[in-house]
């Protein structure tokens, strides 16, 4: 359910102005905005110079209109430059922050190649895992050295000498990167 059937609009901003809101109508694919699909559109506009941001969103109409947008890449046919705008978020009234439009700034791949994309992946991972840390949950970590469990209880107790077979709850394996 990461695709959308809603009408999608984009505004492109550059050093010489903007395109105004444009509906993305004709994809090179038979069906637009499907999960995992890359759609390609031609948008006619005056040359805007170096691009700096876009605003992309959808109408919010239709069943299953929520949309998970990974990124937008705009190829300037005059300069032959690619401008990447990373999103990696939902445009959905019932997901994420509830917004159906996003303002995205250009990613400078020459300064930090892959860094912003990596940061977005980290944020997505945390969004998927943060439920484990909600109030009332008991966290259990398996200790490979002792072959036992380390338990963090909701009342702030830590049991570092846990049984080798703990009967409470699920086991969460966690890797922490600094």
Q: Secondary-structure element order, as H and E?
A: EEEEEEEHEEE
What is the straight-line distance between the termini? 33 Å
The CATH superfamily of the largest domain is known as PLAT/LH2 domain
Name of the level-1 CATH class of the largest domain? Mainly Beta
**Backbone structural class:** mainly beta
Number of strands: 10
The helicity comes to under 10%
- Uncertain spans, ≥5 residues at pLDDT below 50? 169-178
CATH topology of the largest domain: Lipoxygenase-1
Give the CA-based shape: elongated
In what range is the share of β-strand residues? 25-35%
Any idea how many domains? 2
* CATH hierarchy: architecture of the largest domain: Sandwich
Largest sheet: 5 strands, antiparallel
Any overview of this molecule?
- Residues 1-105 form the PLAT domain.
- This is Lipoxygenase homology domain-containing protein 1.
- Pfam families: PLAT (PF01477).
- This protein has two domains: 8-114, Lipoxygenase-1 (Sandwich); 131-175, no CATH class.
- The protein is elongated.
- The chain contains one helix and ten strands.
- Strands 1, 2, 3, 4 and 7 form a five-stranded antiparallel β-sheet that branches. Strands 8-9-10 form a three-stranded antiparallel β-sheet, with no helix packed on it. Strands 5-6 form a two-stranded antiparallel sheet.
- The chain has 178 residues and is mostly beta strands.
